Amino acid sequence: MTNQYSGKTTLISGGAGGIGFALAKEFGSLGMNVVIADIDEKTLATASTQLQNEGVNVLALKLDVSSYEDWEQCVSATEQHFGKLHMVVNNAGVGGIPGKIEETDHATWRWVVDVNMMGVLYGTQAATPALKRHGEGGWIVNVASMAGMMGVPYSSAYAATKAAVVSMTESWAVELKAHNIAVSALCPAFVKTRIHESLRNKQAKYQSEPNKSKAPIDKQKLKQNYNAAAALVESGIEGSLLAKRVVEALDHEQMYIFTHPNYREVASYRAHMLNKAFDDAEQSELVKHLMGQEIASL
Q1: In 134-263, which residue ranges form alpha helices assigned H by DSSP?
Q2: Which CATH number covers residue 143?
Q3: Taking 80 as the threshold, does the pLDDT of residue 222 lie above it?
Q4: Is 42 a catalytic residue?
Q5: Which is it for the CA torsion 297, 266, 21, 111, positive or negative?
Q6: Host domain of residue 91
Q7: Which of the residues 8, 25, 162, 192 is marked catalytic?
Q8: Three-state SS for 85?
Q9: Are 63 and 116 in contact, with CB atoms under 8 Å apart?
Q10: Number of folded domains that form the chain
Q11: What is the pLDDT of residues 198-210, one digit of tens each?
């Protein structure tokens, strides 16, 4: 059966496992050529073999998303192998290390920012010329999180980067609309992945810097936080269900892709608080005169 994805090509970062691999299987089943790119070469080889056995046209590439040069090489290799690139899925991400703000390790923050935020920027920046080149339009799917819609105590680095991904998505959706490139932010709650095991792939460049926080780290509490996070992740939905939901939402041309409708209250609370803040501004003797001004736009 024909569909809008058949015969086209997707490049998925973090494609060897978790959400990335589930999306690779789903898009592959719809007839897409699939490029899985991942930092874990052993898992990458296994994932590639499995996709090949399922009849998917697959190319496996090593990728450290915190390296723009790696991204450029992946996009180039994709075009050389399949001719065109129609979709990029910025999926690779890390959970960081949960803990109190005063215990936060600066190198860990930098790691989370470089992978979760800069990795999305690099992927989009490297892929956009290729998506524009053939003039057929396409898709950019940025994997954020429900954490991007709310603050998460003791996981501020993760939540901050996911909020940034949502904001970048909103910006790029407007910018790329004229090129028929749809940009979406995938914001799931808990999904069965290995994100709580992110440290297994932490690059050496983030491991050498000493912790510069002033407070000593409570290792027992850290272990408790890790175990709690692991339990939540393992209680999540299956990646295969998420992948089908992504396709459904893209078919419905959704910019925000939600997988957990039970989290509506979270986003609604933020909207409620924003409205209260605007009500307060409208009543302010300092700024209420701005109500009639035209909204500035580029």
Answers
A1: 156-176, 219-234, 239-251
A2: 3.40.50.720
A3: no
A4: no
A5: positive
A6: 9-264
A7: 162
A8: coil
A9: no
A10: 1
A11: 555 666 777 755 5
Q: Is 162 a catalytic residue?
A: yes
Catalytic choice (5, 154, 158, 206) = 158
For residue 107, what are the contacts with CB-CB under 8 A and spacing of at least 6? Answer: 206, 207, 208, 209, 210, 211
55 located within any domain: yes
pLDDT grade for 259, boundaries at 50, 70 and 90: very high
In a domain, 272, yes or no: no
Residue 106: closest CA among 260, 137, 114: 114
* CA-wise closest residue to 61 among 49, 46, 74: 74
Does 290 reside within a domain?
no
Q: d(Cα 44, Cα 62) in Å, to the nearest integer? A: 8
Residue 257 dihedral angles phi and psi, to the nearest 5°: -110, 110
Q: In what order do the strands lie in the sheet with 58-62?
A: 58-62, 33-38, 9-13, 87-90, 138-143, 181-187, 256-258
Pair type for strands 58-62 and 87-90: unpaired
Domain assignment present for 281? no
Angle between helices 68-82 and 119-133 (to 10 degrees): 30
pTM: 0.89
